[in-house]
Amino acid sequence: MTDVSGYATLDLERTRRRGYPEAVYCAGKSPAQVAGIAAALRERADLVTLFTRADAAHAEAILTALPDAHHDPIARLLVWPPTPPDPAGGPVVVLAAGTSDLPVAREAMLTARYLGRDTELIVDVGVAGLHRVLSHLDLIRRARAIVVAAGMDGALPGVVAGLVAAPVVAVPTSVGYGAAFEGLAALLTMLNACAPGVAVVNIDNGYGAGHLAAQIAAPVPQ
Amino acid sequence: MTDVSGYATLDLERTRRRGYPEAVYCAGKSPAQVAGIAAALRERADLVTLFTRADAAHAEAILTALPDAHHDPIARLLVWPPTPPDPAGGPVVVLAAGTSDLPVAREAMLTARYLGRDTELIVDVGVAGLHRVLSHLDLIRRARAIVVAAGMDGALPGVVAGLVAAPVVAVPTSVGYGAAFEGLAALLTMLNACAPGVAVVNIDNGYGAGHLAAQIAAPVPQ
Amino acid sequence: MTDVSGYATLDLERTRRRGYPEAVYCAGKSPAQVAGIAAALRERADLVTLFTRADAAHAEAILTALPDAHHDPIARLLVWPPTPPDPAGGPVVVLAAGTSDLPVAREAMLTARYLGRDTELIVDVGVAGLHRVLSHLDLIRRARAIVVAAGMDGALPGVVAGLVAAPVVAVPTSVGYGAAFEGLAALLTMLNACAPGVAVVNIDNGYGAGHLAAQIAAPVPQ
Amino acid sequence: MTDVSGYATLDLERTRRRGYPEAVYCAGKSPAQVAGIAAALRERADLVTLFTRADAAHAEAILTALPDAHHDPIARLLVWPPTPPDPAGGPVVVLAAGTSDLPVAREAMLTARYLGRDTELIVDVGVAGLHRVLSHLDLIRRARAIVVAAGMDGALPGVVAGLVAAPVVAVPTSVGYGAAFEGLAALLTMLNACAPGVAVVNIDNGYGAGHLAAQIAAPVPQ
Amino acid sequence: MTDVSGYATLDLERTRRRGYPEAVYCAGKSPAQVAGIAAALRERADLVTLFTRADAAHAEAILTALPDAHHDPIARLLVWPPTPPDPAGGPVVVLAAGTSDLPVAREAMLTARYLGRDTELIVDVGVAGLHRVLSHLDLIRRARAIVVAAGMDGALPGVVAGLVAAPVVAVPTSVGYGAAFEGLAALLTMLNACAPGVAVVNIDNGYGAGHLAAQIAAPVPQ
Amino acid sequence: MTDVSGYATLDLERTRRRGYPEAVYCAGKSPAQVAGIAAALRERADLVTLFTRADAAHAEAILTALPDAHHDPIARLLVWPPTPPDPAGGPVVVLAAGTSDLPVAREAMLTARYLGRDTELIVDVGVAGLHRVLSHLDLIRRARAIVVAAGMDGALPGVVAGLVAAPVVAVPTSVGYGAAFEGLAALLTMLNACAPGVAVVNIDNGYGAGHLAAQIAAPVPQ
Amino acid sequence: MTDVSGYATLDLERTRRRGYPEAVYCAGKSPAQVAGIAAALRERADLVTLFTRADAAHAEAILTALPDAHHDPIARLLVWPPTPPDPAGGPVVVLAAGTSDLPVAREAMLTARYLGRDTELIVDVGVAGLHRVLSHLDLIRRARAIVVAAGMDGALPGVVAGLVAAPVVAVPTSVGYGAAFEGLAALLTMLNACAPGVAVVNIDNGYGAGHLAAQIAAPVPQ
Amino acid sequence: MTDVSGYATLDLERTRRRGYPEAVYCAGKSPAQVAGIAAALRERADLVTLFTRADAAHAEAILTALPDAHHDPIARLLVWPPTPPDPAGGPVVVLAAGTSDLPVAREAMLTARYLGRDTELIVDVGVAGLHRVLSHLDLIRRARAIVVAAGMDGALPGVVAGLVAAPVVAVPTSVGYGAAFEGLAALLTMLNACAPGVAVVNIDNGYGAGHLAAQIAAPVPQ
Q: What sections of G118-219 are H helices per DSSP?
């Protein structure tokens, strides 16, 4: 463990222990705190670190300390070192029900890619027009794990799970208004999906969905 | 208006005023009170009256006063006089996502029939197996109004609405457990349906759904 | 289907399939994304497209691509091509309980008009002064479908439904404060309306209400 | 203060201090505990005591100790001594929106009567048929305080308040199902009533409503 | 009724009908709309009108049309004509549990005063220091109606009601944080007050509380 | 650790580790499972074990295995061995706001006593009659820790905390109805208590409150 | 598809399509309906069918039609044919935080076993005594998928996920009382688990958890 | 009591009565009001006063009146006089589960210190990496009272309570997103902690947690 200026305790052995990178949750931390953490990581290029929920000020602070970090502003994600590992395990397919679900879907896709999986992203295939998702069925059925991000009624993961054999990681998004209640409606829909095979993560938690999908699709230890 | 023993005020002119039968909501009334209302109606065979949410004791009390009333125990519904009117207007198709949604779906179907519509009932066509609902699409597309009863994730009405031109009356049911929250999850799903054309009524309100569908499919006044 | 720059999949055959225009939900999309969609539509003047929940930046982006689009800033709605179709089917009457409900009511009215119905709008007729709504009863009773937008206690749709034979599409609005809970109180009131014949849509969903009313009042196929 | 067997502390001076009777809330107390309290009151016929929410076992226990107590099983209320005081102050009118609201409405009416007011009870006048409540307007307008008990949409108190000058005490009832959420929907409606002049008490709290109405309509001290 | 530019219907006969002034709820209306209403009132100085929930832009718009209107920025209230009527009926005492509850308490006090009552205001007397409220007991006991505004735990109204004979109008405020849930905690506390005699209005509804208190303390018609 | 028939793992070293007895939560366990655990404890009279939330069947099963266990049916508690330890540390005073809160208050008192504290119990001292709690102030002020059980508005702990220097452990109870929401209202009140010094435990958790009070009032290690 | 007496549509091709057995959700179906479904399956011993949430009456009805079905009353599960398939894929480890979580944990374990996985069950290892779960760490780390059933605070899955590389399927249970809100507290805890790698299913949904774990641990297609 | 300009009533005798300083809750007060209170305190350096939830404008206003007040911007706290008392009683240890919980943890630590306790602060020891909290166990076990601030799943207090004999004061924080519901998830987790010995305060209420811990760890009166 590495102590950072009295406000954070980095768990640098986590990669060894669990086999997956560390992630720094930026929301609620000041840019200065995030910069301090980034600086502490500079000597450890053997470790992959994701910075999640990074706003513009966080990103600027991180890029000052780690100038070559990969930054995806839509997904609010930075990763250092910037090159993802060579893919291993099975493919992860990420679906976004609508265009507005794209930030969450990209966060999931990038997380899975930096955890070492091959990924594909399919956008704007909500249940209001079933033919859209059905037209991608071949690609979806090749996945070892599927992530589905959906807001509003959150019905897409249950429909997809009824069509495939692989596990579906459902991410409710806060897209919608009124009785969407900031993603609560989609969350409840997914928890009650009639088709078995749907695993749910927190609202807007693209990072968690991508992480889980990468674990599911990990190479099987011999 | 007819006053019944100080506990009810019958609105016998409602049929004339709105063109639809009166309904007596039995829950919360004692069997004796319901019997009193039934007896007061005996002289008015020109009026159709539905008794909704009637348990066994209510039904027995009503049948004592109106022995030839039609009784559907699954739908917890009694109607007097027992013969439905000749159908007019467009057809109403009622879908039940699962077998457990049948009581609500039957209540909707019978209400629409006693309000004067032709009705069809399709059971066990939830989104976990899309081919089931797709196999009935021709029949569903002939409807002037569609009622869809669904519990758990409540996803069926939105999927159906994306496939047809007629309005879909969605009835969330209390079928499910845990995060279904007695029908709340299905209710929220339906309110947030991505496809336009979904009208929502109260949880388990088969009567209201059937009534609304009958109004939508009513003969257009010339 | 038309793919737009990897972030949207337009369903241009929807008009043919369902008989109603496509709608682009602008909230959660960037102005650049909305502009891309608008540009993709420029060659298809045979299709009516509504842009809903468009803020000022969305509107500017759309008007750059489609300069003659109709823009109603109160309803946050743009439509292209700008001329509504000739009216067909029955009339739709829209009521706003209070002045603050006007944006939602206008969105409903314009949607119904661009879907091909004759529309009327009546404002500020809440239940605190019953004589206000009663004075419009003749007009309301001529409607084939009625939309009622109301916030706060949301009591108006139930009162109206008790006075007419046509279906009432109730839209709860987020008008109010405290225990109005952003429209939740009005939503629950409408779902529990004592009078049958009330269909409920999502909070502030004027578009959905107008669409549903237009479907209900559509010309009956021969 | 009088101590009863270590489980209750009677506040026998309350009548003197506040000018109103003591009430014993029976729910959650055992019949034996209630009997003990009743026995302790036997010597104090100068004090009026109400026993509220008394089920059959409570009632039997109380009647053993105070055989001439007045018992209204519908309202689940017992009062001793049994004769109400001579009326003073202004009249209290109690409305029940539906027959199922009668237990709560009777509890309110009896409480107001035993606190010394003249009372009237009007039943089954919900907003689904406005003419019903309008036909009683003269009587309602003579009240110094009005109690309105309503479940489901809870819309009646707001409509009444818009028609009269006297304060309206609104009691939501747990009548209804589904999204009525055991009276929550009616409670929210009443808190958001568009017409000012609506005071709300707890769900099913007929006792509190009657007490409040009696205080409002109390003789004005000279 | 007077129609204002298609967005409002003024109910100018309300004073005659109910005996109380009209109120214009400014939130959700544009300054231009409020100005239009103010201008329409200019010719009717025989009517008292309150403008509630008026922010700075609303106030400026109103004062342009009615320059001598009384404006209380803390209470966000304007009144025209500016001089309150001569007091009649019984006194109304308003309590604010804490300094932060002052805006709501002032709105209640001013409303009651402009509806024709004598008023007193007592501030910062929460239950954390009981001696503070007990030191004002003589003044509080002289009231014909008492308004208590309290946020956080909302316990003050129940404590006061246990000490007096007059009705207590409880106004929960949104003061607090965390599990105060924007006033919901205080609202529930007040609805469950152990002492009878507590009437509850909407969260932050100082206007409604003052109106109700003024009705309760109104001169009794002979 | 001791394994019981594959359904429980007893943590018999807990007394040594934490210094407090083990507790067996009976709800959700079958009487046979509870009996098995009781039998496994028979050889370990050096350990105090509490059986909480034991219904009649649980109690019978436990008493068969441990016939001399102490059983308090009101508190639904059994303890073995039956003799409490000699008191040490400071006194714990337990208050029950109403008679209906007695089961929870007794559970707290007995837990504290079997954890080795002197205890006192005061009943029926709710805030509706402040003089009742004020009359016990001397006793309450002698406590090193105070437990206050209250349902309905849950206001008593905050009032007590404003009068004393010792910490107050507040236990919301499910006593009440309607908007008490099974103890939720009291819980929120206590979390928002204006006076500092209020610690809250779960609804109806008398065991947890007594345990916490015993820890607070524990003898200070030298 | 096979139609059963108008109340169910069996999807007998599902095993072929998705590779997993069909499940019949018994709750909400009458014993007669369940018996009808069981009888329809009798000729198809090539298909594995699970009957979930079967109470005693359901079980009796099923066993009449399929006398050799495997019945686990604790898990409320029946399976036919009764012999599970030979294990394939990786091992699934199921943890129950407490004894009361056993029914849900057994349902998960049996589902995974009948879907073809090797399974292990570990009971009573909640976070209140960390050493209990740490003592099983070797076994847990051998799993390809882990199911953790926990009620009350639901903290166990997050703690386990921080210790292992395999995905954790978290099942909140309705064990607990008060602010456990029938499993809602545990559900929220699990959705907010600080450690990534936690997938959540519906409250008490042991079937869904076991199904998902079996999919995750399935043999990787070559 | 000292009256400040009609908007506040200072309870300057509170220190004498309860033995603890007064606190001024700044949120909801204007800077001018807070400045007025600060000025009124200038003559009473014998009293310690905490200003909580002070934003930058509040802080500037206070520092103008009391220039040497201690100001901790992270904790949003000011104290005057600035020097904490000499420590007495037992030590208080404060844990922050993550860096984002630091503001609340610092508010707790500073409050306990200014109430006269020795304090220690440990940061970033959440349950996702158990070894982090276990490495501090010796220090934690020396505490007489422990404060644990945690957001998201809020699991840390229950884990700590299972490892120590001292009471744990749990402060849920609003850190997190989605189904964290602004701290509600952490609050429920803590109320349902499986280990006894957890006392819960309001979300983000570092002041209350520190105050309670200081009371628990106070010197025992002889």
A: 130-134, 137-141, 156-161, 184-191, 206-216
B188 confidence band (pLDDT: 50, 70, 90): very high
* pLDDT tens for each residue of E184-221: 999 999 999 999 999 999 999 999 999 999 999 999 87
Contact E93, E137 (CB under 8 A): no
Q: SS3 of C206, please? A: helix
Are A126 and A156 a contacting pair, CB within 8 Å?
Answer: yes
C-alpha dihedral sign at A55, A58, A64, A69:
negative
In angstroms, rounded to a whole number, what is the distance separating the alpha carbons of residues H153 and C200?
A: 35
G-chain residues near B125 (CB < 8 A): 9
- Asked if residue D186 lies in contact with residue D151, where contact means CB atoms within 8 angstroms, the answer is yes
Cα separations (Å) of E136 from A172, A179, E103, E122, E133? 54, 46, 21, 8, 5
Closest chain F residue to H169 measured between Cα atoms? Answer: F199
Q: What does the block give as tokens for D59?
A: 């009632």
Tell me which residue of G113, G202, G18, G156 sits closest to A167, measured CA to CA: G18
Shortest Cα–Cα distance, F7 to chain E (Å): 37
Task: Give Rg (Cα) of chain H.
Answer: 18
More confident residue, F209 or D44: F209
CB contacts, 8 Å: D207 with chain E: 196
Residue G85: pLDDT band with limits 50, 70, 90 = very high
Cα D217 → chain centroid: 14
What pLDDT score was predicted for residue A203?
A: 98
| Chain A residues in contact with H177 (beta carbon < 8 A) | 27, 53, 202-205
Q: What residue has token string 């004999």? A: H165
Query: Amino acid identity, residue G209?
Result: A
Chain E positions in Cβ-Cβ contact with residue F152 (cut-off 8 Å): 192-194
CB contact under 8 A, H98 and G194: yes
> Residue E132 and residue H11: Cβ atoms within 8 Å?
yes
Higher pLDDT, B138 or F45: B138
Residue B155: pLDDT band with limits 50, 70, 90: very high
* Whether pLDDT at F57 is above 90: yes
pLDDT tens for each residue of D127-141: 888 889 999 999 999
- CB burial of H171-202 (b: ≥16 within 10 Å; e: otherwise) equals bbbbbbbbbbbbbbbbbbbbbbbbbbbbbbbb
**Rounded distance, CA H29 to CA H58, Å?**
9
Question: Do E178 and H14 count as a contact with CB atoms less than 8 A apart?
Answer: no
Q: Tens of pLDDT along G157-180? A: 999 999 999 999 999 999 999 999
Chains H and E touch (3+ CB pairs under 8 A): yes
Helix, strand, coil distribution of chain A in percent, nearest 5? 40, 20, 40
H94 secondary structure, DSSP code: E
ipTM for the predicted complex comes to 0.94
Instruction: Give A190→chain B minimum CA distance, Å.
Output: 7
Q: What φ, ψ does residue C33 adopt, rounded to 5°?
A: -65, -45
* Mean pLDDT of the G98-110 span: 97
* C-alpha span between H87 and D220 (Å, rounded): 59
Query: Which chains border D (3 or more CB–CB pairs < 8 Å)?
Result: B, C, E, F
Residue E5: predicted pLDDT: 65
Mutate to test the interface with H, among A33, A202, A205 (most CBs of H within 10 A): A202
The whole-number pLDDT of residue D81 equals 94
Burial (0-12, 13-18, 19+ Cβ within 10 Å), C41: buried
pLDDT digits (tens, 9 = 90+) for A14-71: 666 667 888 999 999 999 999 999 999 888 888 899 999 999 999 999 999 999 999 9
DSSP string, C134-196: HTTHHHHHT-SEEEEEE-TT--HHHHHHTT-SS-EEEEE---S-GGGGGGHHHHHHHHT-SSS
pTM listed for this prediction:
0.95
